[in-house]
Prior knowledge:
The protein has 396 residues and is α+β, with helices and mostly antiparallel strands. The chain has 11 helices and 19 strands.
Amino acid sequence: MTNIQSAKEFIHQSNADAWIAVDYENKNPAVAHFLGKKMLTRKLFLVIPAQGMPYIICHVIDRVYLDVAEITETFQLRPYKTWQEMLNLAKASFATYRCALMDISEKGLLPNVSHADYGTVRFVESLGIQVKPSADLLQRFTAILNEKALQSQKKACKACLEIKDEAFRFIAMEIRKNGQTTEYEVQRFIVNRFRQEGMVFDEAPIVAIGPNASNPHYAPTENTFSPIREGDLVLIDMWAKYEEEGSVYADITWMGFVGESVPEQFASRFEIIRAARDAAIAFLRYELPNRPVQAWEADAIARKVIEKAGYGQYFTHRLGHSIYSNESPHGPGANLDDYESHDTRILLDGTSFSDEPGIYAPDFGMRTETDLHIQNGQLLVLGGLQEKIVPILALP
């Protein structure tokens, strides 16, 4: 069983006595990290104390799944039968604790770390135990990529960047041939290319022209889409990963203009979001080697750039989200967010996240997005950096 010692060290540094992870049916990702994907059917406490052997308070029925060497060599099993026994066993087990970390977040602002239910937290507090958030500990077990996962993300980013170029050339070809194409046709082109590359995704990519791109989550469908013609601004937001178990998503957004040159009204606004994206990158590259950086700080840096340019009211989402080997590109780690929440989690070595400032004004919307990764204290750019809007009809 890995990472137990690092958890103990973090708990000690947090001036806590234990980490109390609560689970039901193996839904808590931290519990799944330590126990694997087992069929657990009753309430469970997985406890890692700062001192002493970790233990699991579990129902006797679930003991059959847990009483195996790979678990019992690390965790002591403390089974119960009735709910009264469970509460009494927990009370006795926690008797020496004065402070415990639990999977909660301040004011409930980080739902992806809030796995401990209200009643259980109140019960623990009723024992005279101070409860503090475990968020920075939790992401150490749920958001850090191993080398294989990182390589899969790099491979996915490379493929997405190539398919993005093909999509813009597809638009150019269709405009020259037919005078127009549609958002839906371009979306289908990208989806087909993903499938040809052996890549999977949870939702189809976003292809949106000017005003449609003002909605960050607009996406064309078979029945609802707009034509793409000469003079249109086009946003392409695409995310996909390879089919292999543990693969990690690429998630990128690029802008194009259907013309041989890009009008100033579009180019100047893109320069603002490009500067915001790069300001966050420069900040992280400077600060990460020197100190722990909280995720919200990068959002604040980028947001100031857009606010100074007069478009702050139109930057209506966080700067970026965690990326991991999930079913979706949104991972369980720290988000670059000082807008939807105040994410105080530390940006950890081995984690990936997006950097995607946008301006979603009524006349037209735009976004630039790349993927970032922290390795040995250094910031890596995995998803490319768009410097200017692509003049689509100038493409060969």
